[in-house]
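Shall we go through a protein fold together, starting from nothing but its sequence? Please make up or recall a protein chain and show it to me in full. Go ahead whenever you are ready, and we will take it from there.
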Amino acid sequence: MSECASKGCGCSTGPIIQPTAQAPLATGSAQAVYRIENMDCPTEEALIRGKLAGLAGVVGLEFNLMQRTLAVRHELPSLSPVEQALKAIGMQAVRMDEASAGQTTKLSIAKMDCPTEEALIRNKLGTVAGVANLDFNLMQRTLSVRHADGVLPDVLVALQALGFEAQVEDKAVAASPSASPVTTPTNWWPLGISLIAASAAEAVYWFHDGNHWSVVILALVAVLTGGLSTYKKGWIALKNRNLNMNALMSIAVTGAMFIGHWPEAAMVMVLFALAEVIEAKSLDRARNAIRGLLDLTPEQATVQQPDGTWREVSAKQIAIGSRVRVKPGERIALDGEVLDGRSTVNQAPITGESLPVEKSPGDPVFAGTINESGSFEYRVSALASNSTLARIIHAVEAAQGSRAPTQRFVDQFARWYTPLVFALAIAVALLPPLLMGAAWMDWIYRALVLLVVACPCALVISTPVSIVSGLAAAARHGILVKGGVYLEEGRKLRWLALDKTGTVTHGKPAQTDFVAWGNALASDSRCIAASLAARSDHPVSKAVAQAAQRDGVALLDVAEFSALPGRGVQGQIDGETYYLGNHRMLEELGQCTPELEQRIAALETVGKTVVMLVGAKGVHALFAVADTIKDSSRRAIAELHALGINTVMLTGDNPHTAQAIAAQAGIDRAQGNQLPDDKLREVEQLSRNGKVGMVGDGINDAPALARADIGFAMGAAGTDTAIETADVALMDDDLRKIPTFVRLSRATAQVLMQNIVLALGIKAVFLVLTFTGHATMWMAVFADMGASLLVVGNGLRLLRR
């Protein structure tokens, strides 16, 4: 998927040419391979090439932008010059060939949930020798550290120096989401004492019409009880030359006390501490929105014992292959396959659809779904930690840790905003008194107000909360989005390409016609065709095989069977090679005749798919099958058109059938006889006119799915590959989920824009008010923390969509 255009870097978004073969190493040279996370477009390649090409000892450079890797051939005693050059141009390079010899440790850090804390940790651990890469997930409060052997103790000591207690996660636990949502514990009594003391300081100040020794004592009590943790964090940040919110607030409160504004300093610290608690609780709600789905899975299940009896057993202890019984009204504890009994199951936690689904022997069932009417027994197919629901949650949590384009912009903006406003605050405190003879205390106070305004907390927190809420809302609808970038890009879709079989249609065609051709015996032709079709998993082949089975046709042994992608299948029966395939295969075999073409066209024009059995003596028989369009497909296409998205159907079926199905579904265009490469070229052509999505469910769709800006996988429930590889996985076969995804993407974009405008707008207003002398520290802290709470609350609205 190309992300280049989304970054606005100005480079071409055409296909990236990869090296077809690796050049041999020069005599005496070595090679180092780096992964560069922020290198994915030709502009960055040119920047790196220009920087490294001039280094003495660098022999050659090989770029792979799709994999974000750079291979450096060199004759250097040390790679320090290369790594320093990459760092100088802002490239985040990790040595892959060397780092792979180390290990990755996942740490849980309870007090890390803000970008300012991430920056603090990143700067500190960046100086620890042996640390190769840091991967932060603030929403889950985890840090994955790739490091050399023996370096972990140094990492833990460095984190402890910053005031962070890190716990090494057990690998078995880290592999699966915890059943218990994470919440932030709150110690309320210091905050209560601080609030009472600050209020008392205000009252005494008003009673005495000014400062009094009791005001000073009450203010100190309020600051120390409510703001001691803020001071500790602020001091650690300053020691590490980091101007985060805690450092700025500590300086502002200390300055206010220094110039005699004791009650105001106390109340500002209390309000800051209170707002941080409320903000943490709000973030916990977003953080646990998706993890709460695991509460739907029962902790125990009724399992058959070796002696044939049934007993309640913890779901975590149940092994694959165990036989489990489910009663009416119970939730299903584990993934499995029905062995005995029939029922209807509500699969809403997986697919987002609450309509019950009939279940009978052989059908799959999923953990967390609800058995409604009957009782049945099933065989467990996955452990509790690897159920479909657990994999969905794991995938969404991983997506939550990725940076969306808007978030990358906001982080870059915040990196410059705070130092600039801090420098402005110093100028405000010094220049007017020195140059214009203004009152020192007045302008120092205005500078302190600026320090409160200087933290971009509302801005940096607005994006991740909105993205996480959007991802969680999508998951509840049965839409698994693999990263914030796809959630943001969904609103820009202009074209949606769709496969036909199983996507627009039910994917369960039935044989409608059989025509013996030439001098071949009808019974022999059916027998040979059924033998070939039974070895294939294509829906058309299945229809031929099922019709033969229903009529009692005997199957023959097939040798050297192979699939012909986009054409059909072939195999040897009794030493003779036979082909069963479509019109394209017939043309390639040179077996087309006018009479045959006329018969095929007659069947295709009524929407039927025709396959032919071909042997050494020519065409033996024609088989026509027909599929039906899903009602949901028609409604989905109408909704997509209403959203301004054009549709095109790309199918390996014949053009006549493609046009007939497209007309029935309301699809704008249809292309038939499409091989995988043809679908790829069509998607590339469409991408010239805007963002393109591709919907598919088969191996033939893989190249086009990879090339599209967003690849949608249909019917991903229970499918490991789709959940792991698709950009967006639809947990059932309902196309209406795509319009839902687009609407959610547009709603997320609106919330992101509202949050950014709100956060920056409040900052701009208070910058003006500060210079005019109308802003107070009270107002500044209310505005700053109020803006944070507003953007968090606005982002959480997406959870209700």
The chain has a mean pLDDT of 80. The first strand starts at residue 30 and ends at 36. The chain has 28 helices and 30 strands.
